[in-house]
Amino acid sequence: HRLFGPDKRSVIVAMDHGSTEGVMKGFEDPGKLLEQVVAGGADVILTTVGIARHFSKELSTISVMIRCDGATSPLLERPRELIVDAETVLSLGAEAAAAMYFPGTANGHGSTIYFPQLVAEAHRWNLPVMAEALPYGFESHKDSHETHAVAATCRMAAENGADIVKTFYTGDRE
Asked: Taking the model in full, what pTM does it have?
């Protein structure tokens, strides 16, 4: 399993939404959906502890990245926090950990504190960490997709130890 192919590119399919959204249309049968995603040629599945545990057979031929933070659900609004540690990620056979990083929000929704903590722990195990780095989190802001805001956010995520950064596409390849 590899996070990136020989071409240094990767198709990472996010299947971690159920932990905060509940059952979503199209995600009713995770096993079947995982089989389709794997057959479609994805390189990595970003998912949750529960999916990784219960669908290990379907995930046996693809790289797995585990979402380590959690937050608001349709049932209760709460701050984002770490809910999975690096050792758990490794115990599931996953190749990487992932967490949000929101530097432009009030208190970073906690992510500016817990993200570097996750990185420090994960790197002790040589476990790569992906930052889902969004300048203003999920808040509506006029600069959310502007190149300067996205570039600054990606730089901050990298400076805080991110090995991989997932962010908005600004329309500018530079």
From this structure: 0.89
